[in-house]
Amino acid sequence: MNQPVIVLVRPQLGENIGMVARAMWNFGLCHLRLVEPRDGWPNPAAGPAASGADVVLDKAELFDTLEAAVADCNRVYATAMTLRRMIKETTTPGGAVEQMNQLAAQGGRSAIVFGPERTGLTTEEVAMGDVLISIPTNPEFGSLNLAQAVIVLAYEWHRQQDTTPPVRLEGDYEGPATRETLDGLINHLNDLLEPRGYFHPDHRTESMKRTLRNIFERPGFTGQEVRTLRGVMRCLAGELNRKPASDIQGSGEISGE
Amino acid sequence: MNQPVIVLVRPQLGENIGMVARAMWNFGLCHLRLVEPRDGWPNPAAGPAASGADVVLDKAELFDTLEAAVADCNRVYATAMTLRRMIKETTTPGGAVEQMNQLAAQGGRSAIVFGPERTGLTTEEVAMGDVLISIPTNPEFGSLNLAQAVIVLAYEWHRQQDTTPPVRLEGDYEGPATRETLDGLINHLNDLLEPRGYFHPDHRTESMKRTLRNIFERPGFTGQEVRTLRGVMRCLAGELNRKPASDIQGSGEISGE
Questions:
Q1: What stretch of H or E contains A145?
Q2: With a cut of 0.85, is the ipTM above it?
Q3: Which of B119, B97, B21 is CA-nearest to residue B61?
Q4: What count of CB pairs under 8 Å joins A to B?
């Protein structure tokens, strides 16, 4: 699927071009086009700032005009903070990326055009865009620097392709223990608490047991975690002491059973 | 509604603290907490890098420990690139912000904890988080710098509060012209094309007129734009020439009628 092309018009600092390349490549974008970079191209300051995103810099294309840089693109997005006097379809980053994905699915290519660091795109350059992207920001403090604006668009593009579940368990999570294992823990706990007078008064016993069951059911403990917890319970109840008597003042570590 | 608190653990460079403040304030976050900043606090390098986000730096709070920095928070999100050997609920930025909003609606406060520039949080510090935030990135190039990671979270937070329509018309758009005005344009065009032999052959006349109607209906032209287009048509048809005869070689501008 066609990725959007990132076009920087008259970028001033090589460092910023490098930081843009890094932001792009962090989120999988690799087509960078430069229109009249102030200090020429290649620029030795770009590489260090790219922090390893050399693949983007190596493939960057140089153009004399914005027209030439977007000539093979089917839709051109101009980025601007403030809207000049013109009637233009205006999108959020999210709205723009949805459109780009639809266009890409039809085989079309989008360009996102960013202006120079201090001044942004001229009114004429904004007018060359089919659509304006305006990043909603704090109304009191809306000025993003160049690499920050690029990272927002690149993140948004990646976010809409990404299939990572919003919430998941990672690490060595083997899934929740079986019901039998979990019931073993809960019954063990009840058996330890009962003779120690925890369930009092009698008429509240059932609701106290229900509360405890909920506490231990909700987290989805693994079998290993249940074994660790049973060790903790036995230790608290005075039924487990792994330290040899001679080491009772030492710093022996109590690990999960 | 409670905003998430941004906690920087052992940040190294004042410039990065400033850039974090800027990224936060761009998207409306203003609660910054610093745990053991390497060069102390305040840091004279932070202000210039904040580019005007002084309100965030001025209100930044200093803590000796991560525990103290998150003591009043109801849920702590640790950020990390790679997952160490631990079972931890892990979220995307989008998933995390959804949870934060639910918590905030109940009056709870979230903290998002970022580690030092080069090393990130220690395994112990990650373990202190209730939830891990992992930003999905290019698997070949996943390392975000500190301010970039903060801007992604701050953008995502703002995005989920923001009510800006994804696609809209801005500028001086007064809405589409009335149907009568638009029909005036289309009839005018047909009347100009008919005597000039455009509608040929006869049996295609109706479909050609339908095509033209669709072209002019879809954009939702304003009344002013319709007037401009009628002037353009009249000029093309030789019925409008605003230049005085004496100025026919000059550069007089033809504006919308």
A1: none
A2: no
A3: B21
A4: 156
- Residue B86: which of A84, A147, A171 has the nearest Cβ? A171
Mapped onto helix, strand or coil, the DSSP state of residue B197 is coil
Q: What pTM was estimated for this model as a whole?
A: 0.83
Helices (H), chain B: 14-26, 46-50, 54-58, 66-69, 93-105, 123-128, 146-161, 179-193, 205-217, 223-236
How confident is residue A256, by pLDDT bands cut at 50, 70 and 90? very low
- Report pLDDT for B149: 96
Q: Give the pLDDT band (50/70/90) at residue A158.
A: very high
The per-residue pLDDT for B248 is 52
Spatial contact of B126 and B84, defined as CB atoms under 8 Å apart: yes
**The pLDDT value given to residue B255:** 45
Q: Which are the contacts of B169, defined by CB distance < 8 A and separation ≥ 6? A: A87, A88, A89, A90, B220
Lowest-confidence range among A119-123, A187-191, B170-174? B170-174
pLDDT of A105: 93
Residue B119's identity, in one-letter code, is T
Torsional sign, CA A211, A215, A218, A222: negative
- Ramachandran sector of residue A240 (left: φ over 0; alpha: ψ -120 to 50; beta: rest): beta
Q: Cβ B88–A137 below 8 Å, yes or no? A: no
Nearest chain A residue (CA) to B91: A167
Is B136 within 8 Å of A99 when comparing Cβ atoms?
A: no
Question: How far is Cα B166 from Cα B242, in angstroms, rounded to an integer?
Answer: 41
- Evaluated on CA atoms A120, A121, A127, A128, the torsion sign reads negative
Cβ contacts of B72 within 8 Å, gap of 6 or more:
B109
Angle at B197 between CA B196 and CA B203, to 5 degrees: 150
Which element (helix H / strand E) includes A122? none
- To the nearest whole angstrom, how far is the Cα of A197 from the nearest Cα of chain B? 32
- Residue B245 touches chain A, beta carbons under 8 Å: no
- Cβ neighbours of residue B13 closer than 8 Å, sequence gap 6 or more: B38, B39, B45, B117
- Picking from A160, B184, A244, the residue whose alpha carbon sits closest to that of residue A252 is A244
Q: What's B140-194 look like in SS3?
A: CCCCCCHHHHHHHHHHHHHHHHCCCCCEEEECCCCCCCCHHHHHHHHHHHHHHHH
